[in-house]
Amino acid sequence: MAPITEVEGRRLALSNLEKVLYPATGFTKAEVLHYYATVADVLLPHLRERPVSFLRYPDGPDGQVFFTKNVPPGTPDWVTTAEVPRSEGPARMVLVQDLPSLMWAANLVAEFHTHQWLIGDPEQADRIVFDLDPGAPATIVHCCEVALWLRERLAADGIEAYAKTSGSKGLHLLAAVRGASSDRVSEYAKGLAVEAEKAMPRLVLHRMTRSLRPGKVFVDWSQNAARKTTATPYTLRARAEPLVSAPVTWEEVADCRAPDRLALRAGDIAPRLQDYGDLLAPLLDPAHAGPLP
């Protein structure tokens, strides 16, 4: 029988705690749960009021990996859910609002992916995101070069950007915005991706065409679409090692000369929080949200 744990008055059955989920390092499910409990104070504000899609990997990254967008069967009745608009008709999704819900979700063994809008106003985007995805032999080092260009370009429009690793091979740029629909934000993001390609034609690609990807950084602007989600800050990723989609400083981006410099793992995050706090905290402050030009 799975051990029962009480979290802020909620009873949780936590299963298979000794299972190794990250074979390259022996990182277990118990360690996954401990990681999420450790980062809960900074992770939860980035999850609250955002419908969550779960990319589940209950047997580790080498097992079955699948998306769960609707409320999973067996979800406790105290976990908050909400009706979410979709083109094929409304659906009901999970909102991870508190520590018990976070630990319940972590027990599913899942990456957390969230939209660029809040459930209270799904018609209005509150964030813009650029997913910088390198095509080999390009690496995150090349993503950093593109990120610095995009940061300056956004700043010229009065928008302050922040960076985090994807937790895989790339980099994410995020900024707080206001007063625009997801369609408008997508249009603006595409325009900047096109500009970046014109400015750095040997390095940047704004189209998803696979045959054009080798050696270039694909600036994926399409994740601003209302239906799409992006890896939430501080989520673990389904990789051989417990890599995290972790905030990084612009100094780290500018100084990145080797891909492993920005490969941040679960054990790296608590010390970074002590040193930096939540580098993405300004995204949560409406005063930092800029209007699109």
From TrEMBL:
The keyword Ligase applies. One of its GO terms (molecular function) is DNA ligase (ATP) activity. It holds the Pfam family LigD_Prim-Pol. Keywords: Ligase. It comes from the Bacteria. Transmembrane segments: none annotated. InterPro entries: LigD_pol_dom, MtLigD_Pol-like, NHEJ_LigD. Its EC number is 6.5.1.1. It is an enzyme of class 6 (ligase). Residues 28-279 form the DNA ligase D polymerase domain. PANTHER family: BIFUNCTIONAL NON-HOMOLOGOUS END JOINING PROTEIN LIGD (PTHR42705). NCBIfam families: ligD_pol. This is ATP-dependent DNA ligase.
